[in-house]
Amino acid sequence: HADIAMYRAKKLGRNNFQFYTPAMNDEAQERVRIEGALRKALDRGEFVLHYQPQVDLATGEIVGMEALLRWKHPELGMVPPGRFIGVAEDTGLIAPIGAWVMRTAAQQNKAWQDAGLGQLRVAVNLSARQFASPDLVADIERVLADTGLPPEYLEIELTESLFMSDIAQAVDVLHGMKALGIKLSIDDFGTGYSSLSYLSRFPIDVLKIDRSFVNDIDRDASDAAIVASIITLAHNLKLSVIAEGVESAGQLDYLRRHGCDEMQGFYFSKPLPADEFAALLRARTALALAAPELDEETA
Ligand code: C2E
Ligand code: MG
Ligand code: MG
Ligand code: MG
User: Fold this and answer.
1) What's the 82 CA to ligand 1 centre distance in angstroms?
2) Among 44, 83, 117, 242, which residue's Cβ finds the most Cβ atoms within 10 Å?
3) Predicted ipTM > 0.85
4) Among all ligands shown, which has an atom nearest to the Cα of 155?
């Protein structure tokens, strides 16, 4: 009957997305499975954060980290965020999960600072639901108070899609967050329906160049031009700029020559479990990017 369903779906035409297909059924089943397990994951302590270093391109020092969520499911194994964040968003489960992420990241960062491992920023990704919550600013304020992390070391990563529904409302929320003294960045910059006009209206600090542009810097002249332009744009607006997904020495060299402030990517380090990240910090408080062989040894 799968073939019949497929045939009928085809006859109905490509735009008939509501029509049943076996593929949709698999996907729906996967979502139901993920949702059921996701409901129990927080209580069972199945989430962990990995931390990916952010490196100053002028000094080679690690100046920050991005906290990235991982789900260690006893049967499904390590589930990457791409497979469950969407479900968590649709079911509302992202609210408690996101709150756990922010608190854990802040606590961990404060512990590393107290242990003398450096005064580093920690960046946390925010979902659309979290951004829409009327409690957002109060929640962040409470995390800062409870953990004792000074606000300037917390960065919130936002995507352009969060701003689309109500710009005026978004401006209010961003000012509320900024008033706490934290940093705000635009993640995946250049991939959304970007309106450049918001850049001057929003109190943001950092642009994160999406890795799709960085990826082809040395092969694709227009991607290289886009990256150089974003760096100039950021600096003209007095914003800092970081490149995501840096995987090669060639990409690093291009970014450095064009004055990019920071980089994050597998070339320096993958996202690491907390203990490995701490070991990396201990091993090198200052890193000479001129010696990439060293990076591979510690990665
Ligand atoms: P993102 O915020 O843009 O995070 C960067 C992603 O790029 C991460 O994938 C990271 O592992 C990957 N990455 C870093 N360097 C490189 C590189 O050199 N090459 C390549 N190919 N990839 C690189 P990850 O951890 O799978 O996360 C995917 C997305 O899931 C994130 O994209 C973010 O949108 C979302 N996410 C992760 N953690 C959270 C969270 O705690 N809350 C929310 N709401 N979303 C999260
Ligand atoms: Mg991010
Ligand atoms: Mg990104
Ligand atoms: Mg391209």
Assistant:
1) 8
2) 242
3) yes
4) 2
